[in-house]
């Protein structure tokens, strides 16, 4: 019998560095997680490849996926749809491999409803001032937009209670090491492994 893989969800407030941490994690050679590529209606940025970074969709196609229940979760974020194709997640978990999602907070809450047994990791900023400087440094946003993003980020930090672990993103490599350690520990949990040992005893 194949033991199901773990569903790992990395989420956290806008601007905290989820994308950067995820990319650094998947650049590591020993990584054994399978990244779930999201679908989105936003246009590709320079260098992004369809089927690698995202599955880029038209709004109509995306709405079709929603209607046909092809998404595990979805959310509208800054005017675009983002969602997780469900078939890949189900098939990969059934094959015994861990699936890794990097999604915004509304989507993470939906996954929690569908997969309460998942591993939910909240990426937190070292401080609010640090978060603000990251949002400001990101580019050309107006004062109003920055204040609005900060307000949303504060509300998002309050959603931390729905998560199993909090990883501070003080430095990308530290955040990656913490995530790897959490996944390793999770695989050693008694409630995950005891059935395997019981089966072993039955055979003896
Ligand atoms: P970006 O447009 O910068 O690639 O992503 C914007 C936001 O969408 C990020 O916070 C990212 O985590 C989130 N995101 C990416 N894929 C998904 C997804 O499949 N579902 C949800 N809910 N959020 C996603």
From TrEMBL:
PROSITE patterns linked to this entry: GUANYLATE_KINASE_1, GUANYLATE_KINASE_2
Major subcellular site: cytoplasm
Positions with a binding annotation for ATP: 12-19
GO cellular component, one term: cytosol
Domain Guanylate kinase-like, chain residue ranges per copy: 5-184
Keywords: ATP-binding, Cytoplasm, Kinase, Nucleotide-binding, Transferase
Nucleotide-binding recorded as keyword: yes
Domain of life assignment: Bacteria
Any one GO molecular function term: ATP binding
Family: Belongs to the guanylate kinase family.
PANTHER family named in the record: GUANYLATE KINASE (PTHR23117:SF13), GUANYLATE KINASE-RELATED (PTHR23117)
NCBIfam families: guanyl_kin (TIGR03263)
Protein role: Essential for recycling GMP and indirectly, cGMP.
The protein's name: Guanylate kinase
Organism: Priestia veravalensis
Protein's gene: gmk
């Amino acid at each position: 019998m194949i033991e199901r893989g773990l569903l790992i969800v990395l989420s956290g407030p806008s601007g905290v560095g989820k994308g950067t941490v995820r990319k650094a994690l998947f650049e590591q050679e020993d990584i054994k997680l399978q990244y779930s590529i999201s679908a989105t209606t936003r246009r590709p940025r320079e260098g992004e490849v369809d089927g690698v970074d995202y599955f880029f969709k038209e709004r109509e196609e995306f709405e079709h996926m929603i209607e046909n229940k092809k998404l595990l979760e979805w959310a509208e974020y800054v005017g675009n749809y983002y969602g997780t194709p469900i078939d890949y997640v189900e098939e990969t978990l059934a094959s015994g491999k861990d699936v890794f999602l990097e999604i915004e907070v509304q989507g993470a809450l939906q996954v929690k409803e569908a997969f309460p047994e998942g591993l939910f990791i909240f990426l937190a900023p070292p401080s609010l001032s640090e978060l603000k400087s990251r949002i400001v440094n990101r580019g050309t946003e107006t004062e109003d937009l920055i204040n609005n993003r900060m307000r949303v980020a504060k509300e998002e930090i309050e959603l931390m209670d729905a998560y199993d672990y909090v990883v501070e993103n003080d430095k990308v490599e530290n955040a990656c090491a913490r995530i790897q350690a959490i996944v390793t520990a999770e695989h050693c949990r008694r409630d995950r492994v005891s059935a395997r040992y019981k089966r072993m005893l039955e055979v003896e």
